TrEMBL record:
Family matches, as PROSITE patterns: SHSP
Protein keywords: Stress response
Similarity comment text for this entry: Belongs to the small heat shock protein (HSP20) family.
Protein name per Swiss-Prot or TrEMBL: Hsp20 family protein
Keyword hit for Zinc: no
Source species: Bradyrhizobium ontarionense
Ranges of residues in domain SHSP: 28-141
SUPFAM superfamilies registered for this protein in UniProt: HSP20-like chaperones
């Protein structure tokens, strides 16, 4: 794996601390591939995360969103009482975290046919949205009067 040094960017950028911290964390993270998941873009500001959780029930899962981090945790409750001859369906406890961008909110979560689907939307506040600035015109006579004064 390749590592990147972000030091030159620190010298010429202001206010991007969180972005560089996240990139640095991502480089160092050892990725566990369980449970498998998809991230879909459903529109300009809508997303869906789908996790394949075969063998889990909704009451064995916890979904929390706090301080820009979405956490999905799962723990089987009755694993000790079963004796398997062969176990191909993984049911080990897991904790999967997703970093959310600013203004991304979790709107809902549903569990159907072994898939946990989490709906997200980016809601940018009105004050942060781009707005069009009207360009006014000043009559030539007014400019001449301003120069004469």
């Amino acid at each position: 794996m390749r590592t990147y040094d972000f030091t030159p960017l620190w010298r010429s950028t202001i206010g991007f601390d969180r972005l560089f911290d996240r990139l640095d964390e991502t480089q160092r993270a050892v990725e566990d591939n369980y449970p498998p998941y998809d991230i879909e873009r459903l529109g300009d500001d809508r997303y869906r995360i789908s996790l394949a959780l075969a063998g889990f029930a909704p009451d064995e899962l916890a979904v929390t969103a706090e301080h820009g981090v979405l956490t999905v945790e799962g723990r089987k409750s009755d694993q000790e009482s079963r004796e398997y001859l062969y176990q191909g369906i993984s049911s080990r406890p897991f904790k999967r975290q997703f970093n959310l961008a600013d203004y991304v909110q979790v709107t809902s979560a549903s569990f159907d046919n072994g898939l946990l689907r989490i709906e997200l939307v980016r809601e940018i506040p009105e004050a942060m949205r781009p707005r069009r600035i009207a360009i006014g015109t000043v009559p030539v006579e007014q400019i001449a009067q301003q120069k004469a004064a």
